[in-house]
Amino acid sequence: MSGILDKKSRVLDSIITLEGRKQLSNGGINIRYVTFTDGATFYKADMDNGSADATLRLYLESCHLPQDEITFQSDDDGKLVSFKSSLDKLIKDGKLLNTDVILPSDSEMLSGSSIFVSTQERGTFLQQSAESLLTSSIDNLKKMQIIGTKDSLFDDNDFSIGSTDVEFVITETGPIPIDFGVITDVRQLENIIADPRFSNLVNFKYLPPINKTDEIVNKSNVDNLSKYLLGSYPAWNSIPSRVLSHREVINEHAYYARNGFSKILNFDPTSYSNNLFFQAFEVTNDTMYKLDIIDFGINQSVVRQSEDTRFSPGPITNIFFIGRLITKSETNTHSFVHLFTLIFG
Question: Which of 18, 27, 175, 239 could lock 261 by a disulfide, CB 3.0 to 4.6 Å apart?
Answer without folding.
Answer: 175
